[in-house]
Design goal:
14 helices; alpha/beta
Length: 524
């Protein structure tokens, strides 16, 4: 018999195998040892596994899906929610066929999905990939219902393989001829050769096995197959001249899925093989589908990573440089106006990035605020200057504060870029809603919490007032998306602030009040 492959992984890697079925824990542990693993921990449910993870180092988790006390999916969510464990590679081993639940696992941050049954070689490949890939985090919308219901392209899954085992050349030729047009067909003229193929890195999907062979008969071949992790799940159909019930019973005890007697009747054998191969093809398609779903999620995360880290940082630098140049007293008025146009364009791009990247995180509960002092007065002044240029025809924007002249303008505690997007959206909406030659004011109130009040002429229609900050709510605005005020609410709340609407029909006036935490420290 062919020995299993060893030294496929680092012997110092610490594995945690989680499965409520003890024989399965032993099988998986045996496969890992065959790869060269020395440190293998086991747990019979998610709760026990979580206790282990909280007490000692683990490099990768191999976890079954359905378990009592705490399921594999529940354990995955606990791991991804833990600051220390969140980057831990986590492979889910499953026979799950409900795609909605698989999508939930992917969106919860699973590193890989392995469909049962599987070979040692496939397991090793998935482990290597999970250990070297960029860690995944919870991403509740990375795979949508529409994505995971899309059919796979025809031809992406290779044809299943049948291994025909018989000591008679005529029988090998007959069976090979019957199935060569539908499947990949391999042949073995002895039990030893059959075991070599079944326990290789490319095992067959189905074995048609003769019983009466010299040296090693079919029963012994089947028994050795069940003792090896690579071949133990390969289905066997006995094709034999033995017709007694004892032989049939013994074959079924060894895991045979069917029993076909010689002489072979093609009209009987072909439908039986075809029916079973449909299951094999479904299994392979299932794994291919799940791989595609996971790759879709990874692509989504890569795009988000690029947007946040590769675009936002340099853009913020550009904005800071432009603002510094515009504030330089040596610049002419025309140069300052041009710089402000550049700043406006950059802020618009930054706003789109915030709306696509940060709002997604806020909506899905993954945003973490790194609160720092924010010069809210400077932000409001710059946004007003930009808005005055954009709405010059209306001649309507003023800025005010209750801070006495000469005193330091207060700062908020939050995120500078989020504040830019928050007040840019609100002031833009106010300017668009205000009649020409009317007044739009933005006032900074030195209170605790800090208060910013935006007022404009024109009353918000009564029909949308209660839903004004909800998503996609708009009324009578050509090209309106209903995202501006919704994003403003999320951006305020993400900074531990609040936003409120007040409408006066008598004065035909709309007032939006934003409160943000007041930074109580001293300015550096």
């Amino acid at each position: 018999m062919k020995p299993e492959r060893r030294d496929m992984i680092d012997k110092n890697t610490v594995f945690l195998v989680v499965d409520d079925f003890e024989p399965m824990r032993k099988v998986t542990s045996g496969q890992l040892r065959a790869m060269g693993a020395n440190i293998i921990l086991t747990a019979k449910n998610g709760a026990e596994a979580l206790r282990i993870l909280q007490k000692r180092r683990v490099d990768i988790v191999l976890c079954d899906w359905n378990m009592p006390i705490m399921t594999g999916l529940e354990l995955l969510k606990e791991v991804r929610a833990d600051a220390i464990l969140s980057r831990l590679p986590f492979i889910m081993i499953t026979a799950e066929i409900e795609r909605e639940r698989v999508a939930e696992a992917i969106n919860s941050g699973v590193s890989d999905l392995l469909v049962k049954p599987y070979t040692t070689n496939r397991l090793a490949t998935r482990i290597e990939k999970a250990l070297t890939a960029r860690p995944r985090s919870s991403s509740p919308s990375a795979v949508t219902a529409e994505m995971h219901k899309l059919p796979m392209a025809v031809g992406e899954v290779e044809r299943p393989t049948i291994l025909v085992v018989d000591d008679m050349v005529d029988n090998l030729q007959l069976l090979s001829h019957l199935f060569k047009d539908e499947y990949r067909v391999r042949v073995a003229q002895s039990g030893a050769k059959a075991l070599d193929i079944c326990q290789s890195d490319d095992p067959p999907d189905l074995v048609l096995l003769d019983i009466m062979m010299p040296g090693m008969d079919g029963f012994e071949v089947a028994r050795h197959m069940r003792e090896h992790s690579t071949s133990e799940n390969i289905p066997v159909i006995f094709v034999t001249a033995m017709t007694g019930e004892d032989a049939r019973h013994k074959g079924l005890e060894l895991g045979a899925v069917d029993f076909v007697t010689k002489p072979i009747d093609p009209d009987v054998l072909k439908p039986r093989v075809r029916n079973f191969m449909r299951y094999v093809e479904l299994h392979k398609q299932l794994q291919a589908d799940y791989d595609t779903m996971l790759e879709t999620a990874r692509l989504h995360e890569d795009i988000e990573h690029i947007t946040r880290h590769d675009m936002k940082g340099p853009l913020a630098g550009v904005i800071g440089l432009v603002q510094a140049l515009a504030d330089d007293n040596t610049m002419s008025r025309e140069q300052v106006e041009q710089l402000r146009m550049v700043e406006e364009t950059a802020l618009q791009v930054l706003n789109m990035i915030n709306l696509s990247a940060e709002l997604f995180k806020i909506e899905t509960g993954r945003f973490k605020l790194d609160a720092k002092p924010v010069r809210i007065g400077d932000i409001l002044r710059r946004i007003v200057e930009i808005s005055r240029a954009s709405f010059a025809a209306k001649r309507l924007i003023v800025i005010d504060t209750d801070v006495p002249a000469g005193e330091e303008v207060p700062q908020s505690l939050g995120d500078t870029m989020l504040c830019y997007s928050l007040f840019q959206n609100l002031l833009k909406n106010a300017c668009e809603a205000a009649p020409e030659a009317s007044r739009v004011s933005i006032t900074l109130m030195n209170e605790t919490p800090l208060r910013v009040v935006i007022q404009n002429k024109g009353a918000v229609p009564a029909v949308i007032r209660e839903r004004f900050f909800d998503k996609f709510v708009t009324h009578g605005k050509q090209g309106g998306t209903g995202i501006g005020t919704y994003s403003a609410r999320l951006l305020a709340e993400a900074q531990n602030g609040k936003i409120a609407l007040e409408v006066s029909d008598q004065d035909n006036q709309t007032t939006i009040t934003v409160t943000l935490p007041h930074y109580a420290g001293t300015t550096a």
